[in-house]
Write a structure and sequence with these properties.
heterodimer; A: alpha+beta; Arc Repressor Mutant, subunit A; Glutaredoxin; 2 domains; 5-stranded mixed beta sheet; B: Rossmann fold; Ubiquitin-like (UB roll); 3 domains; 43% helix; binds flavin mononucleotide; binds iron/sulfur cluster; binds FE2/S2 (inorganic) cluster
Chain lengths: 154, 420
């Protein structure tokens, strides 16, 4: 089960909304932070903490792209390939990530260092192509810039 | 033009409350609390402010509906989902001018009789989340939010709710479902959110940019505000330009600025000396315009006449090297991925369109595929539960209207002559 600190955090969130169910998405984020991804067990904890049916927790979690249903690598690369990024070369960067780091969309590199997901516009179109690594924005990407940036993520 | 929305953002500490106060910040809230809510509503109506989230609904009118509803509490939701591809206009407000939004929401809460506001922020903006949370804390400490704002006995609380990567949650009823802790699937209207929204109570949903106009409207008055822009569409507008231009970015310009000026005067024209081919003027869901159709005023009234929509003001510029089949295919991948699955024409139709486009793009297009595209799009259009499906169909129909030959050549030749 969640530890006391996490339970307290969830209770504080609950207090901000008229209904406990609103704490579901924030709690899923917390569970994902604590366990790295949303395992069956993690979702069970959320269901119990909020007193919601497990099926509803799983159903809701599966609707949202940012909840992960399998383990991810130590760092999550979220590369945008929507139109503004695509016309400035993001699809070539996908090939580069595969060749250089051995990571494919929805996959994880063999050494567990990187996972990769394709994003639908991350609001950085003016400095395309762009990606988020974990929670950091990186833009104006080129192959060389990606190499420099990813150095920092071990 | 005096900057209202992007005022002070070149100051590296612009997100700090003290810097905001230095340039007059929270003066409008203080002024507002000495006015009657009704008086402010009149100013908002006079201003002609229309919602900046895409639909352009008159804000004063929406507010009157919510105010007329006898039920309390009322909720004010700020739509910071900014999911429309090509759009990055709310981000500078959220990251660099958060107090403008907070002040706008506090004023709006007072006018609407709402004591609770939430900012529904897309999950992809983690930095903005930290900035906003910090700004909200500062505003509480200085008594611009809380139980007794500026000692006037007015109450307004604000919290950030983080979305989790679903474009459809930008649609206001899906947003409400999401903040209630459910899948973001749109609700039937009526009842409209202004009468039965979040937790069944009157709820006002407004875009970040919309709410950020409030401090100025209170400060200068609705009439002064309405002097900027066009008669039916007033005020400043944030345009975000991306793609094949020299100076992409967010520009605060009068509503109704011409698309040509936005691209050539403000965004520095087409990159690498290439020729303009096409523009998606208001985010990926708005129909494409060919290069010869950019002499139109970018506002909610003029753009439909020009064959597209203002949408979110997200201008995506494409030069002669960009393949329209490829762009359409990518757009449809997006719609298929983001379809919430509630209604059949959108759920099945977007997948079908994507598949046809994929084979055309891969050189495996079949005879009759172009007609099929047009047929499927026509059968989605007007038959979906919410505007997402319509948008997807409109994108395909717009492309076929202006660039049909490109699709036909792909089918006939089995290859593409463009670089991108
Ligand atoms: C599919 C879809 C996505 C939308 N996404 C957004 C969005 O990201 N941000 C936004 O403010 N409005 C979005 N809207 C419009 C909202 O439904 C709503 O009209 C708007 O938030 C109202 O605020 P406004 O009157 O201030 O524009 C979207 C609408 C649809 C149909
Ligand atoms: S049009 Fe698409 S997104 Fe909208 S309700 Fe139907 S399936 Fe969902
Ligand atoms: S299209 Fe890539 S960030 Fe917007």
């Amino acid at each position: 089960m969640f530890n006391e600190t996490v339970l307290k955090e969830i209770n504080e969130i609950r207090a901000k909304y008229p209904d406990r169910r609103s704490a579901l998405l924030p709690s899923l984020y917390i569970a994902q932070r604590e366990f790295g991804w949303l395992s069956h067990e993690a979702m069970q904890f959320v269901a119990r903490t909020l007193n919601l049916p497990e099926a509803e927790v799983r159903g809701t979690a599966s609707f949202y792209a940012m909840f992960k249903h399998k383990p991810v690598g130590r760092n999550l690369i979220q590369l945008c390939t929507n139109v503004s990024c695509m016309i400035l070369g993001s699809e070539g960067l996908l090939d580069f990530l595969n060749k250089r780091y051995g990571v494919e969309p929805d996959g994880t590199s063999g050494d567990g260092r990187f996972s990769l997901v394709i994003m639908e516009c991350i609001g950085a179109c003016g400095t395309a192509p762009a990606m988020l690594v974990n929670t950091d924005f990186h833009d104006n990407l080129t192959e060389q810039r990606i190499e420099e940036i990813l150095e920092k993520y071990k | 033009m005096e900057k209202i929305l992007l005022k002070n953002i070149d100051n590296p500490n612009s997100a700090d409350i003290n810097e905001y106060i230095k340039v007059g910040g929270y003066g409008s809230l203080s002024k507002a609390l000495n006015m009657q809510p009704k008086e402010i509503l009149e100013e908002v109506k006079k201003s002609g402010l229309r919602g900046r989230g895409g639909a352009g609904f008159p804000t004063g009118m929406k507010w009157s509906f919510a105010i007329a509803d006898p039920n309390f509490p009322k909720y004010l939701l700020c739509n910071a989902d900014e999911g429309e591809p090509g759009t990055f206009k709310d981000r500078p407000i959220l990251e660099k001018n958060p107090h403008l939004l907070i002040e706008g929401m506090a004023i709006s809460g007072y006018v609407l009789g709402s004591e609770f506001g939430y900012v529904y922020l897309r999950g992809e903006y983690p930095y903005a989340k930290d900035v906003l949370n910090k700004a909200i804390k500062q505003a509480h400490e200085k008594n611009y939010l809380g139980d007794n704002i500026l000692g006037k006995g007015i109450r307004f609380h604000l919290a950030v709710y983080q979305g989790a990567g679903a474009y459809i949650c930008g649609e206001e009823t899906a947003l409400i479902e999401s903040i209630e802790g459910r899948k973001g699937q749109p609700r039937n209207k009526p009842p409209f959110p202004v009468n039965a929204g979040a937790w069944g109570l009157p709820t006002i949903v407004n875009n970040v940019e919309t709410l950020s106009n409030l401090p100025y409207i209170v400060e200068a008055g609705g009439e002064a505000y309405s002097k900027t822009g066009n008669k039916d569409c007033s005020g400043p507008k944030l345009f975000c330009v991306s793609g094949c231009v020299n100076k992409p970015g967010v520009f605060e310009l009068p509503m109704g600025t011409s698309l040509r000026d936005i691209i050539y005067k403000h965004a520095g024209g087409i990159k690498d000396g290439k020729k303009l081919k096409a523009v998606i003027p208001g985010g990926i869901s708005t129909p494409v315009l060919p290069a010869d159709s950019i002499d139109c005023a970018m506002d909610f009234v003029s753009m439909p006449k020009a064959g597209s929509m203002l949408g979110s003001g997200a201008v995506i510029v494409m030069d002669e090297s960009v393949c329209m089949v490829r762009v359409t295919h990518r757009a449809l991948k997006f719609f298929e991925h983001e379809s919430c699955g509630k209604c059949v024409p959108c759920r099945e139709g977007t997948e079908w369109l994507r598949k046809i486009l994929e084979r055309i793009e891969n050189g495996k297009g079949r005879e009759g595929d172009v007609e099929l595209l047009s047929d499927v799009a026509g059968n989605i259009s007007g038959k979906t539960f919410c505007p997402l499906g319509d948008g997807a169909a409109g994108v395909v129909m717009g492309m076929l209207k202006h660039f049909r030959n490109e699709f036909e050549e792909h089918v006939k030749n089995g290859n593409c002559k463009f670089q991108i």
